[in-house]
Structure formats: structure tokens, C-alpha cells
Automatic annotation (TrEMBL):
This is Interleukin-10 receptor subunit alpha isoform B. GO terms for molecular function: cytokine receptor activity. The chain crosses the membrane at residues 231-258. Residues 1-22 form the signal peptide. GO terms for cellular component: plasma membrane. It comes from Alligator mississippiensis. PROSITE patterns: FN3 (PS50853). InterPro entries: FN3_dom (IPR003961), FN3_sf (IPR036116), Ig-like_fold (IPR013783), Interferon/interleukin_rcp_dom (IPR015373), Type-II_Cytokine-TF_Rcpt (IPR050650). Residues 27-121 form the Fibronectin type-III domain.
Length: 353
């Protein structure tokens, strides 16, 4: 009877002992990063035999560092995901994360991810902005920008080899055209007037295998063609072309006129000639001799030789002309030559010498 009471008492007390159910919990499974550009979310699955009241703790650390840090927003949570974007923003770093289950005083082992880099995330865009000019659509790519502990832009993550696949769909007949662009400003021209077009984009990185997510499709309409405005634009364009051509031709003619050799005008030649004659007259009139006298005396050697032959019978020795008469032709020599043959001239000449 005493043994039966002891066994019954032990059976009643066993559930109250903490060590009786202290077996560990099963660890979470499939712990991994599900990341899009600047959105890094850790996901996991509960173990098959995990209790319904199980909670979870998350930690992370840098690659190469041995210190695990608790995620501030993911301590003792019931969800199966944790946003670690702010903790894993550095583009050049690699990160690890780990999760364990907690139920009462029981905990599971940690389950860790593989190394993760922000540049491995699936590519996404923040949005697309469309505008129309005539029959041309202007597409402005809106890139994601994260402002948290660190501000990181899409262009910082992927500085080179950015591409955008552009799909343009005409709604009237669903005709589609694809373009590949490398800039964030895209121009789609020569579209049909009066039609509606829908546009969506997919980002790509040529040097990386990252998949890209298509943006939400946006539509915009091309206005109906205005014939009057087109005619006015054509006329204005032609007039502008003619004006520019005339300005260029006028400039060319002016340059040619300025650079061509210029002859002396006839009026200027006449004035120069008259000025020369006046100067000669003034010069010789001042010396008491006119132009006719100068011209007659310019032949002084010939006249002197003739006078010598005529006077040879008188046996008068005529003076020899100074060499300066032929070289310099100065006025004094000319006067001496003019006086040859006059009475008393030899004596004067001799006296002068």
C-alpha cells in the first residue's frame, strides 16, 4: 500500500519538474536571404515538430568577424522573416545571419545562412516616369535609394555595365517593340500619332548574373497630329535656313571684297601726278631756273662735244667737264655746262678752279 502511494505521488510531481521536458527544440530550416536591390529580408521555415508557440531570435555578423550581433527588430518574434536591410547595406561587405527557435525555457540550435552581398540581390527599379513631346515618349528611370544607417544608391551598387530592357506595347493592335538602353533617360521617337503606348522596363547588369524584375506597366497617349502646326513649323524652318544661308553668303562676299588686291583709283593717280609737277616747279623756281632749262641742260655732254668741234679753228682750249656732271647732275655743274662757248668763260672757269 505504501509503495502504491509513493508511485502515485511521483507520477503527479513529474510534470512539475523543469528537467522532465528539457529536451531541445528542432532548429529552423531553409534560412536564406531573399533580397532585392536595397531590400534584404531574411526568411526561414519552422521545424516540422516545432511547437505552435515557438518564437525566434535573429543575429548577424560581417564576413571575417567573429562577433554576432542581435538584430534589434528581430528578437523573440513569431514571424518567419526579418528585414535586415539597414544592417547589411555596405556594397563592398559580405554578411552572415542565423536564426534559432525559443519555446519557454527551451531553445534550438542556430541555423546560419551562406555569405550574402548586397550586390547579389535581384535587380529592381523604384519606378518609371513617362512624358510626351509631339510623337516622342521620354522615359525617365527612377532608381532606388535607401536612407537608413547608410545612404546607398543604385549607381553606387552598380557603377558600370548598367542596362535597361524597354518593352513598348501599342494598345490598338498590341504590337510590341523592344529596346536595350544604357542610360537612365530614354527617348522613343517616331511613334504613330493618335495612338496609346504602354511601357515597362527590366534592369540588367551585363557583368553579373543577377535577375531583374519588370516594372509596372505605364501607359501614355500620343496626341492627334496637328497639320497646321506642322505647316507652320516647316515654314519657320525653311525661313530660318534661308536667313542663315544669306548671312553666311554676305559674310563670305565681304571677306572676299576686303582681301582682294586694290588698284590706285584714277582720281588719286591724277592728284599724285599734279602734286609731283607742282613740287618740281616749286623746287626749280626757287633756284632761278625753269623746267625747260633743266631739260635742255640734261644733254650737257653732247652739247659740249659739238661746241668743241665748232670752235676747233679758233685754237681755244675748252675746259673738260667735271665728272660730277655725269654722276650727280648737281645744279652748279649744269650752270657751268650751260655757259660753255660764251665769251670770257674759260677765264671764269679757270678762275673758279
Amino acid at each position: 500500500m505504501a509503495r502504491g502511494c509513493a508511485a502515485l505521488t511521483l507520477a503527479l510531481l513529474l510534470p512539475l519538474c523543469p528537467w522532465a521536458h528539457a529536451q531541445p527544440l528542432a532548429a529552423p530550416t531553409q534560412v536564406r536571404f531573399v533580397a532585392q536591390t536595397l531590400q534584404h529580408v531574411l526568411h526561414w521555415e519552422p521545424a516540422e515538430d516545432a511547437p505552435r508557440d515557438a518564437l525566434y531570435n535573429v543575429e548577424y555578423r560581417l564576413y571575417g568577424s567573429g562577433n554576432w550581433m542581435p538584430a534589434p527588430k528581430c528578437r523573440v518574434i513569431s514571424e518567419f522573416s526579418c528585414d535586415l536591410t539597414n544592417e547589411t547595406l555596405e556594397p563592398t561587405k559580405r554578411y552572415y545571419a542565423q536564426v534559432r527557435a525559443v519555446s519557454g525555457n527551451r531553445t534550438s540550435a542556430w541555423t546560419r545562412t551562406n555569405a550574402f552581398s548586397p550586390r547579389e540581390a535581384t535587380l529592381r527599379l523604384a519606378g518609371v516616369h513617362l512624358s510626351v513631346t509631339g510623337n516622342t515618349i521620354h522615359v525617365s528611370v527612377q532608381l532606388p535609394l535607401r536612407v537608413g544607417n547608410v545612404t546607398v544608391s543604385y549607381t553606387e551598387l552598380y557603377k558600370h555595365s548598367r542596362q535597361y530592357l524597354v518593352l513598348v506595347n501599342r494598345t490598338s493592335d498590341h504590337e510590341q517593340v523592344q529596346y536595350v538602353c544604357t542610360t537612365e533617360t530614354i527617348v522613343i521617337s517616331d511613334l504613330s500619332w493618335g495612338e496609346q503606348y504602354c511601357v515597362r522596363l527590366q534592369p540588367r547588369i551585363i557583368s553579373r548574373p543577377n535577375p531583374g524584375i519588370w516594372t509596372e506597366e505605364k501607359c501614355i497617349s500620343i496626341p492627334v497630329k496637328d497639320e497646321k502646326m506642322e505647316l507652320i513649323s516647316t515654314i519657320v524652318g525653311i525661313a530660318l535656313f534661308i536667313f542663315v544661308a544669306l548671312v553666311l553668303l554676305g559674310t563670305l562676299f565681304i571677306c572676299m571684297y576686303i582681301r582682294r588686291p586694290m588698284g590706285t583709283p584714277a582720281v588719286l593717280k591724277s592728284l599724285i601726278k599734279q602734286s609731283t609737277l607742282w613740287a618740281e616747279q616749286e623746287h626749280f623756281s626757287g633756284g632761278g631756273m625753269d623746267i625747260s632749262t633743266v631739260r635742255s641742260l640734261s644733254m650737257c655732254p653732247k652739247d659740249t662735244a659739238q661746241r668743241a668741234r665748232l670752235d676747233s679753228s679758233s685754237e681755244m682750249a675748252l675746259p673738260v667737264l667735271d665728272e660730277d656732271c655725269m654722276v650727280h647732275g648737281d645744279q652748279e655743274c649744269l650752270l657751268q655746262s650751260a655757259r660753255l662757248g660764251e665769251p670770257g668763260l674759260p677765264e671764269a672757269a679757270a678762275t673758279g678752279r
